[in-house]
Amino acid sequence: MSSDILTKLREEAHTFSKGQRLIAKYISECYDKAAFMTASKLGKKVGVSESTVVRFAVELGYDGYPSMQKAIQEMVLNRLTSVQRIEVANDRLGDQDVLSLVLHSDAEKLRQTEDIIDRGQFQKAVQAILDAERVYILGVRSSAPLANFLGYYLNYMSPNVHVVTTSGEGEMFEKIVAVKPEDCIVAISFPRYSSATVNAARYCRDAGSTVIGLTDNGMSPLGQNADIVLEAKSDMVSLVDSLVAPMSVINALIVAIAAKREQRLSRIFTALEHIWDEHNVYEKQEGDNEH
């Protein structure tokens, strides 16, 4: 929940009816749980009707309950501790089929990402990486695998790629201290946002480098310190953040860049195939040598 909704609840408390005061009190005190409740469930929790909850959201200035719920969730995802995440997850899961819930949630995040991501920003990100003298990829903690995956493939396409996944801010700055305007930075961070990544992105931007921020929205701490923002939806179904949509955006970046570097990649992989074959890097399958 953003501070805006908390402010609204405080400032408009004198106008609330008895039922609305109950809703406001519960949201203020238990926002971590309220963020993932349906209007019906929230109403039952505080003893009012679902329609009362919906009208309350509208009277606060939101388009409806989903808009108010989204405002609550945006703050919650950045504030919850790991213990609170487990508690919220248990409330959400209940007796549901966990596999289906997670798969459906991931599919929904992919759909939402396709709807919100700016194609123009995506093309700018591709071109910035292609034009860069050096590419730095920043991603720590749960974002580190994303950074490593992008770095693994970009190393085939660009001669000077540096992946920085250290979570220590001092060590991170040691690795990026020499950034310059000709460089491109791909910074990755989702709730709970990494202070080290955000501060590093700000430093690189101040140095004149082009900063691409892969994050959940343009108003996130990372989004506000990026020249180009690639929005991808992430969700917290449990202690684990869903990073399926961000990974899909990274896949798209790799494919788009590879299409522009086709000749270079062809030469590299022709040479690599001989090396892999000579050193038995991959298990041979029956029929591999048949023509």
How would you sum up this structure, described in words?
The protein is α/β, with parallel strands linked by helices and 291 residues long. Helix content is 58%, strand content 9%. It has 14 helices and 7 strands. The strands form 2 sheets. Strands 2-1-3-4-5 form a 5-stranded parallel β-sheet, with helices on both faces. A two-stranded antiparallel sheet has the order 6-7. Helix 10 (144-157) links the parallel strand 1 (135-138) and strand 2 (161-164). Helix 4 (39-46) crosses helix 5 (50-59), helix 10 (144-157) packs parallel to helix 13 (244-260) and helix 11 runs parallel beside helix 12. The longest helix is centred in the middle third of the chain and has 19 residues, at 98-116.
* Average pLDDT rating: 85
* Total of helices: 14
Number of strands: 7
What does the overall shape look like?
elongated
Provide the low-confidence segments as ranges. none
Rg over CA atoms, rounded to whole Å, is 23 Å
Structural class, by secondary structure, is alpha/beta
N-to-C SSE series?
HHHHHHHHHEHEHEHEEEEHH
How do the strands of the widest beta sheet line up side by side? 2-1-3-4-5
Helix percent reads 55-70%
Biggest pleated-sheet summary = 5 strands, parallel
Strand content: 5-15%
Give the topology:
Layout: H1 3-11, H2 18-29, H3 31-34, H4 39-46, H5 50-59, H6 65-79, H7 82-93, H8 98-116, H9 119-131, E1 135-138, H10 144-157, E2 161-164, H11 169-176, E3 184-188, H12 195-206, E4 210-215, E5 228-231, E6 235-236, E7 241-242, H13 244-260, H14 262-278
Parallel strand pairs: 1-2, 1-3, 3-4, 4-5
Antiparallel strand pairs: 6-7
